[in-house]
């Protein structure tokens, strides 16, 4: 629903929790398509399967801990 709202930035908290492997794959493909179309995607997750994007910012205790790019 929110993906269709044409937002510039979207925040997802544990977006793949409870999803099967196929649904995770569909989700990741959709996120990559949004990024290619200029959207900013922020994902908060404990599951590294969620993280397959070009830039990673790791926070620890509310502070920037590390920033890396592919």
Structural notes for this entry:
It is a single chain. By secondary structure, this protein is of the alpha+beta class. The protein is 23% helix and 33% strand. The protein contains 1 helix and 4 strands; from the N terminus they run βαβββ. It has one helix spanning 21-36; strands at residues 9-13, 40-44, 55-60, 63-69. It has a two-stranded parallel ribbon with strand order 1-2. Strands 3-4 form a two-stranded antiparallel ribbon. The radius of gyration is 12 Å and the shape is globular. 1% of the residues are buried.
Order of strands across the widest beta sheet? Answer: 1-2
Question: The biggest beta sheet, please?
Answer: 2 strands, parallel
Strand percentage lies at 25-35%
What is the CA-based Rg, rounded? 12 Å
Mean pLDDT: 78
Shape: globular
SS-based structural class?
Answer: alpha+beta
* Residue runs with pLDDT of under 50 for 5 or more positions: none
Number of helices: 1
**How many beta strands in the DSSP annotation?**
4
State the share of residues found in helices, binned by percent. 10-25%
Distance between the termini: 30 Å
Secondary-structure element series: EHEEE
């Amino acid at each position: 629903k929110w993906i269709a709202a044409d937002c510039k930035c979207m925040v997802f908290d544990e977006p793949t929790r409870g999803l099967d492997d196929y649904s995770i794959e569909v989700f990741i493909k959709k996120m990559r398509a949004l990024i290619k179309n200029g959207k900013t995607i922020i994902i908060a997750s404990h599951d590294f399967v969620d993280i397959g994007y070009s830039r990673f910012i790791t926070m620890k205790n509310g502070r920037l801990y590390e920033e890396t790019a592919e």
